[in-house]
Design brief:
2 copies of one chain form a homodimer.
Chain A (H helix, E strand, L loop, with lengths): L4 E5 L5 E6 L5 H7 L6 E7 H17 L3 E2 L3 E3 L8 H14 L7 E5 L1 H13 L6 E5 L2 H7 L4 E6 L2 E8 L4 E4 L9 H18 L1 H9 L1 H5 L3 H21 L14 H11 L6 H19 L5 H9 L12 H8 L12 E6 L2 E5 L4 H12 L2
Helix pairs in contact in A: 3-4, 5-6, 5-9, 6-7, 6-9, 6-11, 10-11, 10-13, 11-12, 11-14, 13-14
Chain lengths: ~375, ~375
């Protein structure tokens, strides 16, 4: 039987738990996290509200909480914008929050990032609870405290590191996830294996068919394992000064794809899937001993609807230099040393990056 | 000879120094704080730019830094608004910052709060350096990591706790401060004495004439002492969970005055001066042994241009209940136990608050 909680310990004695439990357990878990029973603010989106909002309100009311009117935002990446952030501020301040009013972010990565950032900055910080419903949120974005919104110059350029008091991950929510969101989330799962856990990467290959059809036991094991990998990495490096950067494997390429293709053409997961292929190619150019074919065959299992063949490679490369990981004009990339082992380097040439794009284009 | 630095130690091993030194020492102090020499972004306002911006750029250029084009914002509290924050974001991201680009907040409390909040949230946190030029910034707002902007519902409702890497306080800047800003800042100095240091409060009474005419040695001693008091309090309670709340003595009343009178009718310091008189009255109602006359005579020395006699006391009281320190509908107030000793209570009645307003009105 798999464990049903992952604990995150940060410096300064701060810690919190990722609990794998159905949402009906939320009131009990809020109490265990010592949050003050009373008003709370649920922020969700139009996709998720119909499935869980009233149920969650019901659980909370029954346990003696007084949920404020919920806020239902438009689903999608475009909601990570200053205007929507302002809408949360207006709603929350109008509803009469105080510093102990928890914000419950019920949804996928966009809601987690946006509501998390609102919680980080309202009254200089309200207690935050993540209730992730998508795969990408459950294994990645709800863990580690990154919150933020987009700026016209690029994604996630405005934000804060802000840790939740609790993450409650309802694995059943994954069963109702649209297929595209499911397969997109798998990109981050595969990434966790490739950068940090060779055994897990191997398991993913072995179990791939069961994963695609969302076999419950396989999914449970996979999500808890992937969440634990992320938790371990961010516990060691909360503010992304070193180790944590390896989580960006495939992301510098991926962000460029999202940016040049226009938001919506590629999901984040699809862009990362293609980006990992490019990063893998660069990795093998620097280290010919890398088991390229084994890794590439795992990456090719990630479904991607579109190709990057119509995207201008020069523009893609230029965009990478605008990514916020660029330091003093030198592009830092995450590459693989082997399966389960990644590193950061600024010793990559533009030619090698071009070769990476070529490889991803023709994959 | 007074010390020329105050050190702030926070949990998790974080620390930084408040250096009392002329701005020409900034490049040396940046190096000592281990900030990466290269591009940096100076944010200032129209009042301060003419006095210090070019000088500071000169010092930095001479030492091998490459200051990005400086950003000069309109002076005044109205700049603590979402639109001006967005202007900093646009300017900074357009200028090509990366995560190691320091933001230098050159100015008074508004610039420190606004540029500090921009630094806290750009790329999830850039290194922040405070260069406070006003008395209120030097003894209060640059110390403790509070940053933020206003919302139409109230002041400082959006923000973050974000610690600077360095504070460089040039005491000579105080000599060119407009009289109104000088006397307004004295309110926070007096407050620091009343809540935490009876000996300092006594010194202020004794030295009041020298303080008003800004005798250099007296000012130096006073500012360093006041900064050290604030530093001690915030070191013990970075996130305002308990002790730090005493710094709000006079502020819940003061915020209501600022809000009802309309921003600009009272400076923050004037509003706090009047607010402290009201809070003192409430304090003595709860504790008749308080040396009311001694304290009130010190408070009366703080110059205030306007009276609150035209402000509706009912509205003032209602506004206090919207202050972000309100928890679950109970108003928490900071009161004095004695000179140099303050406490927080939620046991104050609306009648006692009204008596406070009456006292401040007729002072």
């Amino acid at each position: 039987m798999a464990q049903d909680a992952v604990h995150i310990n940060l410096n300064g004695g701060r810690s919190y738990a990722i609990q794998f439990a159905p949402f009906r357990a939320v009131p009990r878990l809020l109490a265990a996290a010592e949050l003050r029973k009373g008003p709370c603010l649920i922020v969700t989106d139009t996709n998720v509200a119909g499935l869980y909002l009233e149920k969650l309100r019901g659980y909370l009311l029954k346990a003696g909480w007084s949920p404020l009117p919920g806020l239902i935002l438009p689903a999608g990446e475009r909601s990570k914008a200053p205007e929507l952030l302002q809408q949360i501020y207006d709603h929350a301040l109008g509803a009469g929050i105080d510093r102990q009013t928890p914000v419950l972010a019920l949804g996928g990565g966009v809601i987690g990032d946006l509501a998390g950032y609102a919680a980080a900055t309202l009254l200089r910080g309200l207690p935050l609870v993540h209730l992730p419903t998508s795969l990408i949120a459950q294994v990645d974005s709800s863990i580690g405290g990154k919150t933020g919104i987009n700026h016209s110059v690029g994604k996630n350029l405005i934000g804060a590191f802000y840790q939740p008091k609790l993450v409650c991950t309802d694995l059943d929510a994954l069963q109702s996830l649209p297929e595209l969101e499911w397969t997109s989330g798998l990109a981050e799962v595969v990434k966790h294996g490739l950068i940090a856990d060779a055994e897990f990467a191997h398991e993913l290959s072995t179990n791939w068919d069961r994963i695609l059809r969302r076999d419950k036991n396989t999914v449970r094991h996979m999500v808890i394992k992937a969440a634990a990998i992320k938790a371990r990495i961010v516990s060691e490096d909360e503010r992304e000064s070193s180790l944590r950067a390896i989580l960006n494997f495939g992301h510098t390429f991926g962000h460029a794809i999202e940016r040049i293709a226009g938001y919506g053409q590629f999901t984040h997961g699809e862009a990362v899937a293609v980006g990992m292929r490019a990063a893998l190619k660069v990795s093998v150019l620097l280290n010919p001993d890398l088991p390229y074919t084994t890794i590439d065959s795992l990456l090719k299992r990630l479904p991607v609807r579109n190709s990057i063949k119509d995207l201008d490679p020069t523009k893609l490369t230029q965009t990478m230099y605008f990514d916020k990981k660029v330091q003093a004009g030198r592009l830092r990339l995450v590459l693989l040393r082997g399966i389960g082992s990644a590193y950061v380097t600024d010793k990559v040439t533009e030619e090698q990056i071009s070769a990476g794009w070529d490889s991803a284009r023709n994959a």
